[in-house]
Amino acid sequence: MGRLVERSAEGLIKACGFASALIVLLIVFFLFKEGISFLNSSPVEDHYALFVHSGNPVTQLDEGQIKDLFDKKITNWNQLTNYEYPVVLLTAGDLERLFTPEQLGKNLEYLNACVAHYIDTVPGTLAYFSERQLGLSPAIRIVPVPNISLWKFLSGRQWFPTAQPAAIMGTLPLILGTLLVSLLAILIALPLGLAAAIYLAEIADPRMRNILKPVIELLSGIPSVVYGFFGLVVIVPFIQNLFGLPVGETALAGSFLLAIMALPTIITVSEDAIRTCPIAVKEASLALGASHWQTIFRVILPYASSGITAAAILGIGRAVGETMAVLMVTGNAALMPTSLTQPVRTIPATIAAELGEASFGGLHFKALFALGCLLFLITLVTNLLVERTTSKSRKS
Amino acid sequence: MKNSYLFIALCLLGYACGGPGNSATKSITVKGSDTVLPVAQKTAESFMVANPGVSITVVGGGSGTGLTALMDGNTDIAMSSRDLKADEKLKLQDKQIAFEVKTLAVDALAVIVHPSNPVQRLTREQLEGIFTGSITNWKELGGEDAAIVVYSRENSSGTYEFFKEHVMDKKNYSSSVLNMPATGAIVQSISQTAGAIGYIGFAYMTPEVKSIEVSYDQGQSYVGPSLETAKDKSYPISRPLYYIYDVKNADKVSAYMDYVLSAEGQQIVEQVGYIPLSR
Fold first, then answer.
1. Across the interface, do B189 and A249 touch by the CB < 8 Å criterion?
2. Which residue of B has its CA nearest to A359?
3. Residue A139 is part of which domain span?
């Protein structure tokens, strides 16, 4: 009977383990399935296309050129190709202005003829219509738009996921923004956290320690929205006044906030690492005449170095994935980061801010999943690094 | 233990009875735009007081969320601060669903700056320049020599799209525009940044920020946002707010829809800070 209970308990635990592993795998599979389907799709909305006069020699238009055309930054076709005509834009919104309802027909049945005639008479036209509404005729042809490639997704410098007619999805500023904010945060948090850990583990008397330790752990229990609000109301104006900046929502503000948020992780993990230093080693150092400080810096810290590295990497992992707090204080402008006192946009903040209103299953939606994949890979790499540094120390 | 099972069973029973088959308690779900949310909540509350048999659940999440839920049949009414997008219309055609789009109120967008900013008025062309990034210093607009810090809503928000279409001549925002997750965050940031400019729904106006008079006729006449100017349509930056529902559900939601469009409902619209429909 007891044997049976033991067996079934074992089986139950095993099943739980397998189930959680399976769930993780399923989530990863789902994430990548949605994310990868995004690549090689067209940046133009389904069933929509760009039409030009058949005499227009332009071979293809990429997203950036389309945006410049529709932003009226490119005003003549000779800027793109060997075609001397000013660019005239034509979209569904212009129809009522150009044609009478009689010309278009009750159910837009003459739309095709109207637009074809218009394009024929205005050779510089760039029209954006549904392929269902506008069939082909000899006077007009479709300009192909190249699909989104992995390279363009990773190296593009502009993030306009809702731009019409072609979405621009370059994630380089988002990736760099995420890395910049997280690395800077760890540069601020590591010295502070390490000092606090050394103090707690080696210097503080037990009474002080009993007060400080719970307070520090409380830091990690504060919801990140509260941190974000604190950052927006306190840190942002502080940084603005300190550096005399026109705007306080900067990478620096995000880093400060993330540093505060990563502190508890760093302190707890590195304090544990410092405590694993065997008393015998410590006492040997002291017996050789080393002072307390010398013991800490020459003996204990080198002994705990792998644990401290792990603490730093875990802290980075925490910072990379942080969403709400960063969303509220970094300004979220998708600029290439050139200085610390400029707004940046991070990957988690982008996903959180845009997913709510992206139309389900659409291109923008999938692009956000692809961003999720990127974020997953970044944290996976940091976790693997933790694994390596900690296993190295076990060997030595 | 036994009691809790009984409790769960009772709950399930209650839920089953409250389902669509029973007309004694009817439940309506309203989901979508955070801009429309305050109106929906207030009207739902007073409608439920008047009609104890009906329970209305109001959920936010954004225009896109509401419309997605409506297509999947997870909500009865979608709130939206924008019209249906082209791909959404195509999806509806594919699924052979017909939606009824009803305007329930009008929202005016106020262009706001820091109260210390001496600039009082801007033309649409100047606003376009500011938000597309071709005007970067207040000096060019008759203000002090200070950089313009531009705040906007996130690119998925209905307000973002509306502003782009009606103020920026459909041109794209500059990359250096700061995107804030919520209207409240924009107000907070602008109130503490001297060179800031941004836009918010008129209902969110507070004394911490100053609204700007705008001109849509190259500077001949300037109009500031207020209930009066929005009502008489002299204020140019205003947009309709929509309730969208499946035509098949018309019977279920008609009583509530009628209430929202009635004089009483429109009074609530005005209390919340939006512009009621003129009749």
1. yes
2. B64
3. 48-147
- Which percentage of chain B shows pLDDT scores above 90? 34
B113 assigned to some structural domain: yes
CATH number assigned to the domain comprising residue B39 = 3.40.190.10
Q: Which of A159, A160, A356 lies nearest to residue B61, judging by beta carbons?
A: A356
Computed over every residue of chain B, the mean pLDDT equals 84
Under a CB-based contact definition with an 8 Å cutoff, are residues A61 and B162 in contact? Answer: no
Question: Which regions of A96-254 does DSSP assign to beta strands (E)?
Answer: 125-130, 140-143, 159-160, 168-169
Number of domains making up chain B: 2
Q: How far apart are CA A261 and CA A266, in angstroms?
A: 10
Closest alpha carbon within chain A to B84: A359
Q: How far apart are CA B129 and CA B135, in angstroms?
A: 5
In the block, residue with structure tokens 């919520």: B182
CA angle A51, A53, A58 (to 5 degrees): 80
Dihedral in degrees, nearest 10, Cα atoms B151, B32, A93, B237: -50
Report ipTM (2 d.p.).
Answer: 0.77
Asked if B176 lies within 8 A of A335 by C-beta distance, the reply is yes
CATH no. for residue A71? 3.40.190.10
CB-based contact B178 A333, cutoff 8 Å: yes
Residue A168, strand partner residues: A160
Domain assignment of residue A342, yes or no: yes
Assign residue A346 the CATH number of its domain.
Answer: 1.10.3720.10
Closest residue in A to B134 (Cα–Cα)? A73
Please check whether residue A29 lies inside any domain of the structure: no
Q: Cβ of A356 and B185 within 8 Å?
A: no
**pLDDT tens profile A284-303:** 999 999 998 999 988 999 88
Residues of B in contact with A248 (CB under 8 A): 192-193
Cβ atoms of A325 and A231 within 8 Å: the answer is yes
pLDDT in tens, B7-39: 455 444 444 444 444 445 788 999 988 888 888
Residues of B engaging A, defined by a Cβ cutoff of 8 Å: 61-65, 67-68, 71-72, 85-88, 90, 132, 146-147, 149, 154-158, 160-161, 170-172, 175-181, 185, 188-189, 192-196
Place of tokens 């836009």: B199
Residue B223 lies in a domain: yes
SS3 category, A396 = coil
Same domain, A115 and A206: no
What does the pLDDT average to over A279-283? 91
Cβ pair A248:B193 closer than 8 A:
yes
Looking at the structure, tell me whether residues A91 and A227 fall in a common domain. Answer: no
Positive or negative, the CA dihedral A127, A128, A131, A134 is negative
A vs B: CB pairs below 8 A: 110
**Torsion on CA atoms A257, A263, A266, A271, rounded to nearest 10:** 170
* Burial group, residue B42, by CB count within 10 angstroms (0-12, 13-18, 19+): middle
Q: Which of B29, B31, B11 is nearest to B20 (CA)?
A: B29
Contact, A341 vs A250, CB < 8 A? yes
Give the three-state DSSP class for A293. helix
Q: Enumerate residues 6+ apart whose C-beta is below 8 A from A26.
A: none
Nearest CA to A272 out of A188, A183, A390 is that of A390
At A6, list the tokens. 């033991």
Per-residue pLDDT tens over the stretch B143-194: 889 999 999 988 767 788 889 988 998 889 998 899 887 788 889 889 988 8
- A241 domain-assigned: yes
